């Protein structure tokens, strides 16, 4: 905020904290609602210079708002330019609201600023909110009017629809062109490279094509643009190297501006040197209205269409969204199905995506080859866990894990970012695929499938009606503030953004026949369900930042069973022979615990009169399955199959340690290997006092560990049966693998038939 003149504006510390919280940069635990509630309190001693309400009229109020807004911007805007298009952030929006109220007594609603941040419109809205009659705005000439549904005809004069229709009509001024060169692209203009999907697509374009990529980046110069690209790649755990820098050109510009903010000469050069355009750039904000987003999401694609038609004709590949179908009650979402009625799209983001596609459909009619790529939710990377922190799907997972509730829904149309990027890149590099619509939505997950995955993971949520879930979630976020979830709370409190969320949850499965045919034809990786396995790394990162909550032992065991061991121990020198028995209760918090650690928690007691006349209580303990990934001890033939580590306390308060290992060997007594535990027992901080062997009695295995297997009672009967079967299948697979490893080692040694050094080894 160094560009602000502190003599002109002093922002109270309380208001700055509220702004930083909206931007997600603060670790404060206060909610935005609490902080914004205090914006009306002027600092003691400050004066309001606004005077009586009747003194304000549209032009004077517009000038006041414009002048105040420009103090927060590096580049001044006019009365009809959007505050956010001037480079403002949510921080600046909160500060603008605070400054207008403190200095002029003008209390703007922050939602009004997000909806339409043009100073003239803010002035008109403020006067209307205060009961003033506002003269109608001068209508803009509308050369062509898209067909509206009958029930919306009486709302055609609405400012948003009027602006949208006017924007779409501008595409009629595009020239008519012939087909582009049909060869594979050699020099690609890529926008949105600093975003989540754009960063991944940049790397995929470099990996899977020979093209040089010109990256349009909002920056003051080329060095700053290159620095922003490098920073974005690192943020999403993607490699940045000299080779990447060699194959890209960082182009400072802004696709919100006419001719991308370039000089006429640079515009003409760019039009001649690139032979393909890939547009991933967009302003993704579900709180802002159409007027606030149009410059990025509608006029930007229109400008790129103009560039594609200037000089040599170039194909334009536009990343849109299935949000163009986001009307409540939609029954089908096919790649060539009609999109939603514009008057039924409530959120500004959805409206801009609809308008951008309408603009590009008209460009198609003028001969431009336009490919429309529609992802749905873009999930995190299954390997790196990189994710978009402000994506609705990330927030949805986070709230489910933190609060244990979930709204009912039909399908979740979510695909991992690496798959979306790979398929989108392949389409943009294959001339025969150009000019069509593609859905990059992966495999939709039904409500039952998602519930099954969560139940298996030990996170069975409570299902709520949409309105109940929305109210409950907002209340919980306010009660347990998490800065990263404040944007979700504001979305759910906003009627239009809330309707967008509801439309996503009630939407049908997105259909992607053309995309699947392309994948099969070109041997690309088939989509995999964005299930618990794919989400694991992302979930870990969400949990590391405090956004999500992993299953915990306090939630109650997901699965539990008993194990009985009987045997004898002796002193380390072999003297004595003492009976020893363990009665254990083994429990699993979640399948996540098994997949990541292969660990089981242990409680119970140990009975050995030689150690203490009374049983020792196990205070904490764990058992690991295949603890060393099959590596034998000291390169020998004994491979650790299971390892037990316990901390115990006797009745006198003395603490004891216990360590035992089940070994796999290249021998036929496989059953004995899975039952027998070699043990050591000693006092805390002392060497072992007893060593020996204990084993699971044959007649206790089935009653304890199969028939006695217990699942969490919160699960349905079907999910309990499924959880037991999955555990038994996983456990037997791991044990079978562990028993096979020493056998394979022996076979490998037998095939090493060399009796001496080879000629190569001698030299």
From TrEMBL:
Keywords: Phosphopantetheine, Phosphoprotein, Plasmid. This is Thioester reductase domain-containing protein. Pfam families: NAD_binding_4, PP-binding. InterPro entries: ACP-like_sf, FAR_NAD-bd, NAD(P)-bd_dom_sf, PP-bd_ACP, Thioester_reductase-like_dom. Residues 55-130 form the Carrier domain. The keyword Phosphoprotein applies. The keyword Phosphoprotein applies.
């Amino acid at each position: 905020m160094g560009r602000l003149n502190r003599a002109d504006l002093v922002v109270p510390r309380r208001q700055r904290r509220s702004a930083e919280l909206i931007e997600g940069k603060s670790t404060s635990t206060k909610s935005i609602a609490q902080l914004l509630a205090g914006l009306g309190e002027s600092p003691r001693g400050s004066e309001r210079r606004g005077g009586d309400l009747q003194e304000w009229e549209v032009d004077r109020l517009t000038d006041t708002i414009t002048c105040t807004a420009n103090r927060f911007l590096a580049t001044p805007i006019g009365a009809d330019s959007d505050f956010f298009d001037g480079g403002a952030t949510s921080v600046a929006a909160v500060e603008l609201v605070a400054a207008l109220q403190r200095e002029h007594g003008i209390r703007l609603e922050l939602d009004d600023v997000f909806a339409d941040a043009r100073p003239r419109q803010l002035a008109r809205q403020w006067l209307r909110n205060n009961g003033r009659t506002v003269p109608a705005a001068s209508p803009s000439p509308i050369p062509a009017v898209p067909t509206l549904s009958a029930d919306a005809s009486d709302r055609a004069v609405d400012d948003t629809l009027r602006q949208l229709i006017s924007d779409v009509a501008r595409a009629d001024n595009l020239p008519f062109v012939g087909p582009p060169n049909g060869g594979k692209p050699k020099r690609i203009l890529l926008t949105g490279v600093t975003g989540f999907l754009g960063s991944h697509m940049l790397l995929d374009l470099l990996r899977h094509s020979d093209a040089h990529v010109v990256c349009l980046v909002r920056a003051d110069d080329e060095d700053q643009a290159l620095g922003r690209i490098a920073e974005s790649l690192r943020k999403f755990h993607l490699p940045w190297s000299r080779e990447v820098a060699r194959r890209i050109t960082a182009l400072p510009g802004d696709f919100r501006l006419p001719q991308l903010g370039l000089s006429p000469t640079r515009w003409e050069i760019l039009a001649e040197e690139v032979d393909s355009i890939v547009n991933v750039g967009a302003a993704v904000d579900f709180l802002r209205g159409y007027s606030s987003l149009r410059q990025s999401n509608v006029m930007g694609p229109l400008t790129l269409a103009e560039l594609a038609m200037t000089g040599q004709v170039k194909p334009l590949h536009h990343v849109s969204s299935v949000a163009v179908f986001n009307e409540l009650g939609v029954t089908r979402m096919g790649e060539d199905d009609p999109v939603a009625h514009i008057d039924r799209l409530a959120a500004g983001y959805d409206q801009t995506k609809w308008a951008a596609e309408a603009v590009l459909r008209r460009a198609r009619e003028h001969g431009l080859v336009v490919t429309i790529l529609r992802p749905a939710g873009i999930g995190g990377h299954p390997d790196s866990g990189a994710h978009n922190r402000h994506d609705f799907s990330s927030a949805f997972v986070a709230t489910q894990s933190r609060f244990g509730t979930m709204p009912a829904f039909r399908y979740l149309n979510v695909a991992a970012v690496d798959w979306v990027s790979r398929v989108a890149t392949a389409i943009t590099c294959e001339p025969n695929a150009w000019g069509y619509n593609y859905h990059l939505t992966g495999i939709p997950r039904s409500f039952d499938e998602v519930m099954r995955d969560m139940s298996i993971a030990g996170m069975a949520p409570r299902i709520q009606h949409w309105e109940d879930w929305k109210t409950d979630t907002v209340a919980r976020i306010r009660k347990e503030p998490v800065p990263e979830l404040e944007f979700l709370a504001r979305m759910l409190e906003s009627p239009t953004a809330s309707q967008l969320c509801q439309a996503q949850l009630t939407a049908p499965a997105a259909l992607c026949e053309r995309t699947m045919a392309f994948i099969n034809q070109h041997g690309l990786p088939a989509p995999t369900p964005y299930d618990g396995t794919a989400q694991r790394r992302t979930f870990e990162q969400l949990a590391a930042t405090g956004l999500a909550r992993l299953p915990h032992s306090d939630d109650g065991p997901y699965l539990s069973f008993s194990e009985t061991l009987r045997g004898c121990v002796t002193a380390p020198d072999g003297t004595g022979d003492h009976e020893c028995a363990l009665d254990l209760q083994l429990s699993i918090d979640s399948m996540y615990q098994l997949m990541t650690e292969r660990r089981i928690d242990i409680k119970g007691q140990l009975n050995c009169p030689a150690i203490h006349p009374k049983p020792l209580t196990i205070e904490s303990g764990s058992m690991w399955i295949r603890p060393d990934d099959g590596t034998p001890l000291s390169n020998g033939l004994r491979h650790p199959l299971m390892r037990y580590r316990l901390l115990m306390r006797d009745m006198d308060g003395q603490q004891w340690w216990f360590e035992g290992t089940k070994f796999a060997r290249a021998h036929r007594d496989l059953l004995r290997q899975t039952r027998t535990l070699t043990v050591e027992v000693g006092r805390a901080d002392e060497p072992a006092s007893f060593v020996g062997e204990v084993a699971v009695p044959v007649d206790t295995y089935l009653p304890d560990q199969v028939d006695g297997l217990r699942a969490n009672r919160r699960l349905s009967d079907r999910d309990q049966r499924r959880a037991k079967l999955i555990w038994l299948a996983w456990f037997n697979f791991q044990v079978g693998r562990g028993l096979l490893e020493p056998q394979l080692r022996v076979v490998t040694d037998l095939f090493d038939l060399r009796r001496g050094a080879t000629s190569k080894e001698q030299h």
